[in-house]
């Protein structure tokens, strides 16, 4: 498991492109027959990707967590981002995930495994885990059942629907919040005007992009912004002091996930356009 340490915004001012990418961008989570995890010291969030083809892939604590099993001190949300049906087996119980379906698995489950229903059409499972202090029920939710939030407008090129899966009004968790934002056709901007939430970090996974498509992701303090050029199926960690917003060269979708202190969406501070530099 790769580790990413937390950074100080005063230091980040001095980072060049290479260093910014090294600290915040996750490039290669999704590889056939592999389960890859990256541990961020921002709120100890783990993001990962599993692409089970022929074999079953197991979510394991490994050397880093120093626990008997992965969910001993954690909870996890999993979303399938491929057309191929994914199967998540939790202590023997199977959950089938179509594209955009999510399953939440609570603290204390010893065995979590991933497989594809059809190896010629494998699932691609995005994994986000945060630390947990009590068990909430394991639950599956399809995109149709998620809370939709209509945002933006055509004139601002940011018309989109935010689907909330794991949050106060949906699947309950200790601190993990997770959902997916779909842009309306011909709309390219997410999360603009931007916001901050100093009590939570966030991770964005951009996907459903063509090979040559890019999302230009903006980060940094509002008056000291930087950008990261991102490809399909890459993740970016957003520190609590950073804006997180992007514009695509083509259509894209993204999964956002947050962990930290407050368990509410509405405690975000909106950033006025005057503040951006
Ligand atoms: O804190 C909330 C997260 O940044 C996302 O929900 C924002 C988002 O999906 C969007 O504006 O498109
Ligand atoms: Zn946010």
Compile the SSE list and pairings:
Elements: E1 2-4, H1 9-12, H2 17-24, E2 25-26, E3 35-40, E4 46-50, E5 57-58, H3 62-65, E6 74-80, E7 86-90, E8 93-97, E9 102-105, E10 112-116, E11 125-131, E12 139-141, E13 147-151, E14 160-166, E15 177-183, E16 189-190, E17 195-196, E18 200-207, E19 215-221, E20 224-230, E21 234-238, E22 245-248, E23 253-260, E24 269-270
Parallel strand pairs: 1-3
Antiparallel strand pairs: 2-21, 3-4, 4-11, 5-10, 6-9, 6-11, 7-8, 7-10, 9-12, 13-14, 14-15, 15-23, 16-22, 17-24, 18-21, 18-23, 19-20, 19-22
4-deoxy-L-threo-hex-5-ulosuronic acid is lined by residues 151, 160, 162, 181, 190-191, 197, 202, 244, 256, 268.
Provide structural commentary:
GO terms for molecular function: 4-deoxy-L-threo-5-hexosulose-uronate ketol-isomerase activity; zinc ion binding. Catalyzes the isomerization of 5-dehydro-4-deoxy-D-glucuronate to 3-deoxy-D-glycero-2,5-hexodiulosonate. Keywords: Isomerase, Metal-binding, Zinc. This protein has 277 residues and is mainly beta. The protein has a single domain, classed as Jelly Rolls, CATH 2.60.120.10. It is built from three helices and 24 strands. It has a seven-stranded mixed beta sheet with strand order 1-3-4-11-6-9-12, with no helix packed on it. The protein has a seven-stranded antiparallel beta sheet with strand order 2-21-18-23-15-14-13. A hairpin with a 2-residue loop joins strand 19 and strand 20. It is globular. The N and C termini lie far apart (35 Å). The model has no long low-confidence stretch (mean pLDDT 97). Bound molecules: 4-deoxy-L-threo-hex-5-ulosuronic acid and zinc ion. Zinc ion (ZN) binds next to loops. Zinc ion binds next to loops.
